UniProtKB/TrEMBL annotation:
Domain (ABC transporter) ranges: 4-219
Species lineage: Bacteria, Pseudomonadati, Pseudomonadota, Alphaproteobacteria, Rhodobacterales
Protein family (similarity comment): Belongs to the ABC transporter superfamily.
Pfam families in alphabetical order: ABC_tran
Entry protein name: ATP-binding cassette domain-containing protein
UniProt-listed SUPFAM superfamilies: P-loop containing nucleoside triphosphate hydrolases
InterPro entries: AAA+_ATPase, ABC_transporter-like_ATP-bd, ABC_transporter-like_CS, ABC_transporter_ATP-bind, P-loop_NTPase
Alphabetized GO MF terms: ATP binding; ATP hydrolysis activity
Length: 243
C-alpha cells in the first residue's frame, strides 16, 4: 500500500510553469530519494506532497497518519530551549518522549537545556531531526537537510537518518542533489527531469540503506554520473532561476 501518491502534478508560480506531469509514489517504510538539478522543482514537489502548497494540476493522496518535515535550515525557535524546540509538535509536555527523540538524534541530556544560539550548525540540525521524530510520524519529508554541513558531519547525519528510519519504520521522501547521499540513504532514487517535466526515471541501488559500503557507494555514483544517461543533467544549474 502506497503511503504517498502524486498523480499528474503540475505547478505554476505567478503563471510560470515549473512542474508538469509529476507522478510518483512512496510505499510504507520506503525511503525514496528525489534528485535533480538545482531549480528543477524538487522543493516544490515536497511542499505540494506535504500540503504546504496546492498544486495547479493533479492529485495528491496521503495515506500516512502523521508527517514531519526537515528543511535545510533547522528553523528553530531562538527563544526556546532545545527541549522546548523538540517538544513543540507535541500537544502536551512529555519530557520522556523529548528525551527519547533527542537521544535518537544523537543529543545528550545536557544539551536539552541549551539554546539554539549556543549550538553549532550540525547540533541545530540534530535538534530539527529530534523535533521531526518526537511525534512518531510515519512519513518524513527531508528537503536537502544536510547540504550546508561539511562532509564528515553530513555522513554522521545520514547514518542517523538511516538508523532512525529502520528503528521507527517511517517512510520518507528525501530531496537532495548529492548522489552519494541519495545512494547511501534510500531504497529507491527518482530523477526529476531537468526542467521539471515529469520523473525522468528511477534506479534501485543494490542492498538496503545502512549495509552499503563506502567504496560500493562511490563506484555506483561514478557509474551513474559517467555512464548512465539518466543522470546526465544532474549537475546542470539553471542560474536564470536563481535569485
Ligand atoms: N515561491 C516561489 N515563487 C516564485 N517562484 C518560485 C517559488 N519557489 C520556487 N520558485 C521557482 O520554481 C522553480 C523550482 O524551484 P524549487 O525550489 O522547487 O527547485 P529545487 O529543485 O528544489 O531547487 P534547489 O535545489 O535550488 O532548491 C525555480 O525556478 C524557482 O525559482
Amino acid at each position: 500500500m502506497m503511503q504517498l501518491d502524486l498523480h499528474g502534478i503540475g505547478h505554476s508560480y505567478f503563471g510560470r510553469s515549473v512542474l508538469t506531469g509529476i507522478t510518483l509514489a512512496v510505499a510504507a517504510g520506503e525511503v525514496v530519494a528525489l534528485v535533480g538539478p538545482s531549480g528543477s522543482g524538487k522543493s516544490t514537489i515536497a511542499h505540494i506532497a506535504a500540503g504546504l502548497i496546492d498544486p495547479s494540476e493533479g492529485r495528491v493522496q496521503r495515506r500516512y497518519s502523521r508527517h514531519a518535515m526537515v528543511f535545510q535550515e533547522p528553523r528553530l525557535m531562538p527563544w526556546a530551549s532545545v527541549a522546548r524546540n523538540i517538544g513543540y509538535p507535541l500537544r502536551r509536555r512529555d519530557p520522556a518522549r523529548v528525551t527519547a527523540a533527542a537521544q535518537r538524534a544523537g543529543l545528550l541530556p545536557e544539551d536539552l537545556d541549551r539554546y539554539p544560539v549556543e549550538l553549532s550548525g550540525g547540533m541545530r540540525q540534530r535538534v530539527a531531526i529530534a523535533r521531526a521524530l518526537v511525534a512518531e510520524p510515519d512519513f518524513i519529508y527531508f528537503d536537502e537537510p544536510f547540504t550546508a554541513l561539511d562532509v564528515a558531519l553530513k555522513r554522521r547525519m545520514q547514518d542517523l537518518v538511516i538508523a532512525a528510519a529502520q528503528a521507527a519504520r517511517f517512510a520518507a521522501l528525501f530531496i537532495t542533489h548529492d548522489l552519494m547521499e541519495a545512494i547511501r540513504i534510500s531504497h529507491r532514487i527518482l530523477v526529476l527531469d531537468a526542467r521539471g517535466h515529469g520523473i525522468a526515471g528511477a534506479r534501485v541501488p543494490p542492498g538496503v540503506p545502512g549495509t552499503r559500503g563506502e567504496s560500493a557507494i562511490f563506484a555506483l555514483r561514478q557509474h551513474y554520473l559517467h555512464e548512465d544517461p539518466l543522470f546526465a543533467h544532474i549537475h546542470d544549474i539553471d542560474e536564470r532561476a536563481r535569485p
